[in-house]
């Protein structure tokens, strides 16, 4: 094996599990949460506990989470089963969406239809005067990669975050054009996606995994 081949293969087998937080009341009401710090519902806590029992079987080596309560409390359920410490990072927060935050899906369409339609077409839009999707990826993806670099060979990192942030991070790590990030479907509460590292970089191995399909409630669309 040449030195270049050895370098290309370095770290192969590492996995990143991007896990969306459990249900909140605003998810059920289809309100855009963004950076608003909304608590888990009782159902959300139960979802986190159930998912944690599944994820522990994947033998995670590290856990990093958004510092918003819904993600931090979801991460805590896995930490309790693994005895791992959780590293909290505000760079993993959901997209800041300014005036959209707290509005229902229907209210956003009624008040900001042109902005919403442009975003759905894949145009760079500061929803509610907030962040661009590329700016979310700019802050979140480097955090994920930094923690992934610390993994041992065949190690597993669990990232507990939010629907929109996870989608943009996956898009960035897969080197997809930002116009196409919307083609990655949303994650149901407490479901996850798995990226695996190969010789050519990160690959999407699973998406919206964790249970039988359930409706996606309160994702960033």
TrEMBL record:
The family database entries (InterPro entries) matched by this protein are listed as: His_Pase_superF_clade-1, His_PPase_superfam, PG/BPGM_mutase_AS, PGM_Phosphatase
Q: Which GO terms describe its molecular function?
A: hydrolase activity
Alphabetical list of SUPFAM superfamilies matching this protein: Phosphoglycerate mutase-like
Q: What EC number(s) has UniProt assigned to this enzyme?
A: 3.1.3.85
The alphabetized UniProt keywords are: Hydrolase
Q: Which CDD domains match?
A: HP_PGM_like (cd07067)
- This protein's superkingdom? Bacteria
Q: Which PANTHER family match?
A: BROAD-SPECIFICITY PHOSPHATASE YOR283W-RELATED, GLUCOSYL-3-PHOSPHOGLYCERATE PHOSPHATASE
Name of the protein described by the UniProt record: Broad specificity phosphatase PhoE
């Amino acid at each position: 094996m040449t030195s270049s081949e050895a370098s290309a293969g370095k770290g192969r087998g590492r996995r990143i599990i991007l896990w969306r937080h459990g249900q909140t009341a605003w998810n059920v009401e289809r309100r855009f949460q963004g950076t608003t710090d909304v608590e888990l519902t009782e159902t959300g806590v139960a979802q986190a506990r159930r998912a944690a029992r599944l994820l522990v079987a994947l033998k995670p080596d590290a856990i990093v989470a958004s510092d918003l309560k819904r993600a931090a409390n979801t991460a805590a359920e896995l930490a309790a089963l693994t005895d791992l410490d959780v590293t909290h990072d505000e760079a993993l927060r959901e997209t800041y969406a300014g005036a959209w935050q707290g509005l229902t899906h229907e209210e956003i369409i009624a008040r900001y239809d042109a902005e919403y339609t442009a975003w759905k077409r894949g145009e760079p839009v500061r929803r509610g005067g907030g962040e661009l999707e590329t700016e979310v990826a700019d802050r979140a993806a480097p955090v994920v990669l930094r923690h992934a670099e610390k993994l041992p060979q065949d190690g597993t990192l669990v990232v507990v975050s939010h629907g929109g942030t996870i989608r943009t991070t996956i898009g960035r790590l897969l080197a997809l054009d930002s116009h196409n990030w919307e083609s990655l479907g949303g994650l149901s509460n407490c479901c996850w996606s798995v990226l695996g590292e190969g010789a050519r970089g990160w690959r999407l191995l699973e998406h919206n995994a964790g249970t039988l399909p359930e409706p996606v409630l309160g994702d960033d669309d």
